[in-house]
Write a structure and sequence with these properties.
470 residues, alpha/beta, Rossmann fold, Helicase, Ruva Protein, domain 3, 4 domains, five-stranded parallel beta sheet
């Protein structure tokens, strides 16, 4: 018979499943539904591990773990919770939980964790501090639970993290959460977007420069590495970094030292690196555009963010989160009808969470009363499609052929005329879903911000007209 396990769970159905599974593995299991009974059992028995729910009959299962730790410092604790938020996952981590499982969980994974816990002791590291109830990441879907669990696993160490995901999925929010909840939270958080900096300036931006290092260097400048010393440096869109800068970045990561452009001495820096990209780095490595050794240096702990279309169950909670955020930003208080949320859940969301946020801000601004109803949501979403190629009634090729037949451009002008006709609504769509933010629009389009600005001027598009504040 294996060592006994204590299960603290007030849901009879879930408890029966867990007890049956563990007893089938040879464990003896004591089960109770409340904190008071838990404490009585712990006072009278020794357990190889404890499994506990969060919301119990007589209180918060995590909040009361402090006295359990004092009495049983070496007993592994596995937290189970239907409160599937990043806040819950972080609280479990702060209380040195051996593992955290959001409900519903995979029973095989739980059994595996119990086996490991029964022969292990928890870390003796101290907690990361009080959890922030206003954490920016929202979602209870299974896809996001995996993200939350990965975040909690890197809070007490300085391992390099590579965040992967499409534009608009919230990669910078993951970086901020790792910083705000981790051991470096008292240090600076510095973000730099490799795609938004001209190629000839990115090394100076990262490493700084000395006076006279190049034309225009009228004084010494401190780079992002030094600015982030003692904290976290977030390298966004790392896949767009020029190969020359990649070489210097790799050297800095390997040595923990940087040298300003034009400088003669190395400067020691102590930073945690979180990098992110919306690109598949494998073909870039194969074509020589991204260093393979740098990829392995960055890809220590990969965290992949799901697109919004893969977590539609989160759209309702995200919508309410953004409505509250909009109110804090000065927009009227709104709530949204259930049928309007259903409509949102059916949208393609190519711009992901960022697109949803901007839409919710516009809905909050345009609503005629306190409730955002289906009619308004349908109207605003319909406007989003105006000026873009329809996706349901025919292909892009057919739409272009229809345009050529209708407009009949002059010989020799077909390419220029067609490019302008289809490029303008594409740019307008990107500005619309990003609320007029040119940097984010450029990221969505996959082009340089300077290129976007130039084309906007040539096409006569005013970015400010697409601002979410009208």
């Amino acid at each position: 018979m294996n060592d006994p396990i204590l299960l603290v769970e007030d849901d009879d159905a879930i408890a029966t499943v867990i007890v049956t599974a563990l007893e089938g593995e040879g464990y003896s299991v004591d089960r109770c539904p409340a904190i008071a009974e838990r404490d009585t059992l712990l006072a009278a028995n020794t357990y190889a591990a404890m499994l506990t729910d969060v919301i119990l009959e007589d209180g918060d299962g995590i909040a009361s773990l402090g006295r359990v730790r004092e009495a049983h410092p070496n007993m592994p604790i596995i937290v189970l919770s239907a409160q599937n938020t990043l806040d819950t996952a972080v609280r479990a981590s702060e209380n040195e939980a051996f593992e955290y499982f959001p409900k519903p969980f995979d029973l095989d994974d739980l059994i595996r964790a119990v086996r490991q816990a029964a022969g292990s002791s928890p870390s003796d590291e101290t907690g990361a501090g009080e959890a922030d109830s206003t954490l920016p990441l929202v979602g209870r879907s299974q896809a996001m639970q995996g993200v939350f669990r990965m975040i909690t696993r890197v809070l007490r160490n300085d391992l390099t993290v590579l965040v992967l995901g499409e534009s608009g999925t919230g990669k910078e929010l993951v970086a901020e959460a790792i910083h705000q909840l981790g051991s470096r939270k008292t240090g600076p958080f510095v973000a730099v977007n490799a795609a938004a900096i001209p190629r000839d300036l990115i090394e100076s931006e990262l490493f700084g420069h000395e006076k006279g290092a190049f034309t225009g260097a009228v004084g010494q400048a401190i780079g992002k590495f030094e600015q982030a010393n003692g904290g976290t440096l977030f390298l966004d869109e790392i896949g767009d970094m020029p190969i020359e800068a990649q070489t210097r970045l790799l050297r800095a990561l390997q040595s923990g030292r940087i040298r300003r452009i034009g400088g003669r001495q190395d400067v020691a820096v102590d930073v945690r690196i979180v990098a992110a990209t919306n690109r598949d780095l494998s073909p870039l490595i194969a074509s020589g555009q991204f260093r393979e050794d740098l990829f392995y240096r960055l890809n220590v702990v990969p965290i992949e963010l799901p697109p919004l279309r893969a977590r539609r169950d989160d759209i309702g909670s995200l919508t309410n989160h953004f409505l509250a955020q909009a109110e804090e930003d000065g927009l009227p208080r709104r709530r949204i009808a259930e049928d309007a949320i259903k409509l949102l859940e059916q949208q393609p969301w190519r711009g992901n969470v960022r697109e949803l946020r901007n839409l919710i801000y516009r809905l909050a601004l345009m609503a005629r009363d306190d409730v955002i109803d289906l009619a308004l949501a349908s109207e605003i979403i319909g406007r989003e499609r105006d000026g873009t190629v329809a996706a349901g009634s025919g292909s892009v090729e057919q739409a272009m052929m229809d345009w050529i037949e209708r407009e009949s451009p002059a010989p020799g002008a077909l390419y220029r005329a067609a490019s302008a006709a289809f490029e303008k609504p594409l740019f307008e769509h990107a500005l619309r879903v990003t609320g007029g933010n040119q940097l984010r629009a450029a990221e969505l389009l996959g082009i340089n911000r300077n290129t976007l600005r130039k084309r906007l001027a040539e096409l006569g598009i005013v970015a400010e007209a697409f601002s979410i504040r009208g």
